[in-house]
């Protein structure tokens, strides 16, 4: 995984200011299916979530990604990583992302938004020619159905709230509701007893 050391002190203040401005803008007006997770302590460690695009094996998943700005940014591209495990030709076992935008096609004026949109596009159209996961690349080219099933399976396991957790929370909710119902019924019964007792005393 990427180095966790901060590069804040290595970047020019003007670059930091520019990055902060873009992150604020992305937080206020995020691209569809992308959400920035702000880290005020270290803005060189940019994290976001990307919703799995509809019609892909990643649909329904929520994938956490991380961009690490190096000391030469923006002359050099940031490094991109998936923090959420994903079966994809262009994502290595340590989460590193291989996409031309972060390699040979990098331009210093490309911003964070462009990178995140490119990563989202990679979920729609993988590039088996620059595969970091050879098995996924081979399956994509030779047996797409098997690739799709495997990618969906990983999405279900790693990128979705498990069905069990949902069921547990529903059951917990129902049990809380039931407990509250029982409490209300017993409160009513107690009130009725108190009222009956008062009436009986008045008659005496």
From TrEMBL:
MF GO annotations: ATP binding; ubiquitin conjugating enzyme activity
Region spans: Disordered: 166-204
CDD domains given in the database record: UBCc_UBE2S
A Pfam family that the UniProt record links to this protein: UQ_con
Keyword Lipoprotein in annotation: no
PROSITE patterns: UBC_1, UBC_2
Catalytic activity from the UniProt record: S-ubiquitinyl-[E1 ubiquitin-activating enzyme]-L-cysteine + [E2 ubiquitin-conjugating enzyme]-L-cysteine = [E1 ubiquitin-activating enzyme]-L-cysteine + S-ubiquitinyl-[E2 ubiquitin-conjugating enzyme]-L-cysteine
Residues at the active site: 98 (glycyl thioester intermediate)
One GO biological process term: anaphase-promoting complex-dependent catabolic process
Gene3D superfamilies: Ubiquitin Conjugating Enzyme
Pathway(s) the chain acts in: Protein modification; protein ubiquitination
Xref: InterPro entries: Ub_conjugating_enzyme, UBC, UBQ-conjugating_AS, UBQ-conjugating_enzyme/RWD
PANTHER family per UniProt: UBIQUITIN-CONJUGATING ENZYME E2
Protein name as annotated: E2 ubiquitin-conjugating enzyme
Top-level taxonomy: Eukaryota, Metazoa, Cnidaria, Anthozoa, Hexacorallia
